[in-house]
Amino acid sequence: MPLTSALDKTRKDLERTISELDKTPLYAVVGAGDLAVAKLRDARGELNARAAKLDPHALRDQTEASVAASIESVQSVPTKAQGLLGEVIASAFTTYDELAGRGKSLVTRVRRQQSTADLQEQAKSTVARAKATTTTVKKQTRASKKSASATTSTAKKSASRAKSSAKATTTSAKKTASATKKASNAAATKVGR
Predict the structure, then answer these.
(1) Long-range CB contacts (< 8 A, 24+ apart) of 175-178?
(2) pLDDT tens readout for residues 68-80
(3) Do 17 and 108 fall into the same domain?
(4) Is 6 contained in some domain?
């Protein structure tokens, strides 16, 4: 029993600590992933369109002209790089904030969807059933030890109740897994949109 209360206290401490953390970096990472998925979808369509229009002869002529222009352009790179560095740093801060906002929006949408709420309820139910099963098994084990010298039928009844409780827990766990899959699929459809 002291182990259970220690675990509950540790869980509550972790929940409190997590709720107090600044979630902006997490939101920025989620937002970056969401943006990457959206950009990849756009790029795939654009690449397909460009590939359909590709002319090999025009590409060769264009490449030769581009090489000549590139030599001149390379000489001015150091000056341009210094100017761009300041712009990139300012842009990075802006992008970070935008990604954090995008990530927060996605996390909020996923949290509010029905499948996530169903998953939370199913998980609570599974935990409650697991606790009930543990209690039932402990009680039945104690009762079985006391009545070991008694008839075999008492032990069979105790085992039957424990088996029934375990079966209910297994069913609940399967429902939780199904709800988890449903919530994951629903969240995956929201990524990149």
Answers:
(1) 175/122, 175/125, 175/126, 176/119, 176/122, 176/123, 176/125, 176/126
(2) 677 667 666 667 7
(3) yes
(4) no
Show Cβ contacts of residue 56 under 8 Å, excluding neighbours closer than 6 positions. none
12-31 burial, b at 16+ Cβ within 10 Å, e below that, comes to eeeeeeeeeeeeeeebbebb
Domain that holds residue 33: 13-112
Quote the pTM value.
0.47
- Of 86, 112, 138, which residue constitutes the final position of a domain? 112
Domain count of the fold of the chain: 2
What are the residues whose beta carbons fall under 8 Å from the beta carbon of 132, sequence distance 6 or more?
Answer: 165, 169
CA separation (Å) from 102 to 30, 34, 53, 92, 182?
8, 8, 34, 15, 23
Kindly state whether residues 145 and 174 are assigned to the same domain: yes
Q: Which two tokens stand for residue 81?
A: 């790089």
Residue appearing with tokens 């996923």: 110
pLDDT tens, position by position, 105-149: 888 888 888 988 888 888 888 888 888 888 888 888 887 777 665
